[in-house]
Amino acid sequence: MADHELGAGASAAAGSAVFVGRRRELAELHAEIDRPGLAALRGSAPAAARVLLIAGRPGSGRTTLALRLAAELAARYPDGLLFARLTGADGTPLPAARIARDLLRSWRLPPRPAPVPGLPAQAAGAPAEASRPVAAVPPARAVPAPTTTSVSAPSGPAPSSGAGDASAGLSASSGAAPRGAAASARARTAPADPSTSTGAPTARADRSASPSAEHAAPSRVSGVSMPAGAAASSGRPGASPGAAPAVPPGRPGGPTGTASAGAPGVGGASVSSGAPARAPFAGGGDVVGDPVGVLRAAVEGRRVLVVLDDVAEGGQVAEVLPGGPQALVVATSRGPLAGVADVRPCALGGLDAGAAVELITEVAGATRVTCDPAAAEALARQCEGNPTALRLLAGWMAARPGRTVGDALAEVSRVAEAETDVSPVARAFRVVYAALPGPAARLARLLAIAPDATVDDQFASALAGCAPAAAGRMLDELLTHGVVRPGPDGTRLVLGSLQPLLAAELAARERPADVTVARARMLERAVRLLRSCRGYAEPLGSPARKAAAELPKEVRFPSAEAADRWLRERFPVLLAAARIAVADGELDTLARRLAVALLRALEAHRQAADRVPELYELHGLLLTVAKRHAEPRQQAAALLELADLDARRGRSAEALRGYRAALDAARAGNDPLAQGRALEALGDGYRELGDAERAADWYGRALTLRLGRGDLAAQVRLHGRLGALATSAGRTAVALREWRSAAAVARRAGDPSGVARALAATAVVQERSGQPEEALRTGQEALHWARQAGDTRTEGTILLRMADVLDRLGDPAGARIQREAAGRLLQPHGAPPA
Questions:
Q1: Which among 421, 260, 252, 348 is positioned nearest to 55, based on CA atoms?
Q2: Which of 504, 480, 500 is nearest to 492 (CA)?
Q3: In the chain, is it the N or the C terminus that has fewer CB atoms within a 10 Å radius of its CB?
């Protein structure tokens, strides 16, 4: 799950979950921070940041504990909090470049505390660095916001146990969603080029764990927004300094939208109700160069706190480890981190008996535990204190008011006797899964193929093949049982520790063909939503907008703003869906449609500039599909787009290689349009490198191709570029020939503005070659064509050039008249008076 962030958006559970147990572990971790490392014992300065490791199996609450620690340490690291998950939803380790980008994008400064009457900001608990003004910049990429692990019992929302690790979700920013979706809601233009001067130019309210209870609105604890499952941890309220017990929504003092103004935070700071300021790094959206190098340079010398969740191997940490002792890294993993020096480990086992019983009490209700405390303690022992197992069984009881703790103990004991070699989480899951109704159980196992382990009513209805309302009810049931976690805006996040179990059930109970059909329905739904989203970015009355209005109401958006928000928030999930579809290889047509729809929606909503690395990936996915099916035309299109991205980022050598590969593919597919574009782009690339001879050669080849196809606009453009090259090289005869050819072709094409610009360029060449009278006559002709076209900007520019020629000819009065006329024409375009 690729995208998390701390401090941006709000956690759906941070204000409603109770932190139970883990007091000893927290104390150990706090003590390790200031304990001298191996380098200090040797008398040398530390070369890298201190690394604290929280080691435990998935479902042990390791992510929750890491983020609890981060919340308590926020005041000590005022330069910002960073979070990234190092393993994908399918268990695949993520590459270092992607991890670095995620860290940069998640970088947020802790929020400033609310002022205390009579005290300055520092006295109120805010560090000086955190109180400095930092402009709040909209994130380049909507990162999925953290959510709770807790699921409410029918009597009201219940706190979580810290059961399990964070799951990626959708962004928590609010906004309207496509109706029934429980979601909130240009073509590339080449840069201006002198040589082309002649060219033709309603969201449903968040559901609670039970259908009768209202889901808590987001809130923030200690300025740290946590991923799913992070809010519930494993220490008692007040167990550690600065940690504030949260109040469940619906109870006195509970949050109903934003954090309470006076809620205590880390270091005595109040919880801020506004979004925290973005850290002083603007490269998160489009990191030019090596993202790992950019990350290291950005955090150098800063007191930042970095949380690396679900580390697969030590090399992942070593690659992004900040240099210098100022930063602190908190990592979670299954075991030791080989290759990382001086790691301070904290092994995470089960909850102690008291904390485990408290967790059961909070989720299942106090009455049942009070009636049979011995059974509650026995249940805790049977689950080995595992928070996820306890949470599942407590949810099983919460969904069945007539069942007792003894009943839950009997059920899990029966499973334990039948399957002695399975984990406590697996045993608890067996109990819960067996009790689910058939449709809900089928949806649960189909959640194993949900992209980024995230689902909403729309995706759930597509997977299950039912109406969104019915899918929403089933998701509520799974939420009550603890199979999924609540996410922002009605989304649901699959518990990471349950993913393998759900996948095993899917393989055992569903035919492969049925799984493929379910995935196809989900991809088709995503394509329709993206088409609707794109339509809302177009003007009213446009064909795309009309087409969006004709779509079913479930996939329509209430406004263009809602569609834009939805795209920003859902982008990570949609990208994950495209990745999975291409990797699967069975639904290549749908995968291609999804990638194209996503690219077009990004362009329509002007979000492409913030997602350059993802654009590379999307076009790479399209290239993979094209190669798989031996489609040279599609390969050429994808290669051209990839080369364009390289060219825009200044990677000229890579761009030239890409254009050559695209040219070969276009020739193999007999695609003259792609050939022409590649040839012209090669000319542009060599011109950028200052190789005018090669640029002219490629432009000449492109011109020959365009002449054969009768493409007048392209001919004008290419004649102009050849003319500009010749002008720069001082080859007057060639330059005059090319510019006059450009003017002639523009005249045939019916483009008076193009004629005017070509003639104006011709006049410039004539003036530079010592022919001012000829330049003046050519300028007058260009002026005639500009006036015919009504192109006041070109007309004003020509008048200024003519004024220079008149000055050279010794006519200052005439030059002054021309400049005054040019000033009147150019002032509406923002130019100063002549």
A1: 348
A2: 480
A3: C
Among 322, 349, 376, the domain boundary falls at 349
User: Which stretches of the chain score pLDDT less than 50?
Assistant: 1-17, 113-177, 179-285, 833-834
Residue 649 domain flag:
no
Concatenated DSSP letters of 28-82: HHHHHHHS--HHHHTTS--SB-EEEEEE--TTSSHHHHHHHHHHHHGGG-TT-EE
Please name the helix (run of DSSP H) or strand (run of DSSP E) that holds residue 494, with its range, or none: strand 492-494
Rounded Cα–Cα distance for residues 378 and 381 (Å): 5
User: Looking at residue 172, what is its pLDDT?
Assistant: 33
Among 323, 349, 375, identify where a domain stops: 349
Beta-bridged to residue 50, according to DSSP, are 328
Would you say residue 289 lies in a domain? Answer: yes
Give CA–CA dist 449/521, Å, rounded.
12
pLDDT at 809: 87
In the prediction, which pLDDT does 477 show?
94
Give me the pLDDT at residue 195, please: 36
Per-residue burial over 521-553, b if 16 or more Cβ lie within 10 Å, else e, is bbbebbbbbbbbbbbbbbeeeeebbeebeebee
Predicted pLDDT at 381 = 93
Whole-model pTM: value is 0.75
Q: Is residue 16 part of a domain?
A: yes
What's the confidence (pLDDT) of residue 111?
A: 55
Angle, CA 547 vertex, CA 541 and CA 551 arms, to 5°: 130
| pLDDT at res. 716 | 95
CA 707-712-715 angle, to 5 degrees, is 60
Helix axes 23-34, 62-73, angle to 10 degrees: 50
Contact 274, 7 (CB under 8 A): no
- Number of domains the chain is built from: 2
Quick one: which of 360, 347, 420 has its CA closest to 389? 360
3-class state of residue 308 by DSSP:
strand
Look at residue 38 in the predicted model and tell me its pLDDT.
64
Task: Report CA-CA distances (Å) from 456 to 473, 475, 499, 709, 761.
Answer: 11, 8, 17, 50, 58
Question: Which DSSP letter does residue 120 get?
Answer: -
Q: Output the CA torsion 120→220→65→409 (10° steps).
A: 140
The answer to whether the beta carbons of residues 757 and 739 sit under 8 Å apart is no
Whether 720 and 196 have beta carbons less than 8 Å apart is answered as: yes
> In the prediction, which pLDDT does 43 show?
59
Query: Do 620 and 599 form a contact (C-beta atoms < 8 A)?
Result: no
What CATH number is associated with residue 762? 1.25.40.10
Residue holding tokens 């900001």? 121
Q: Is 210 helix (H, G, I), strand (E, B) or coil?
A: coil
Angle between helices 588-604 and 612-628 (to 10 degrees): 150
Q: What is the pLDDT of residue 726?
A: 95
Give me the pLDDT at residue 326, please: 86
Radius of gyration (Cα) for the chain, nearest Å?
32
Spacing of C-alpha 563 from chain mean position = 16
Domain range for 340: 1-173+218-349
- Separation of alpha carbons 56 and 347, rounded Å: 6
Beta strand pairing call for 492-494 and 305-311: unpaired
| 59 belongs to a structural domain | yes
User: In the numeric block, which tokens belong to residue 268?
Assistant: 């005595």
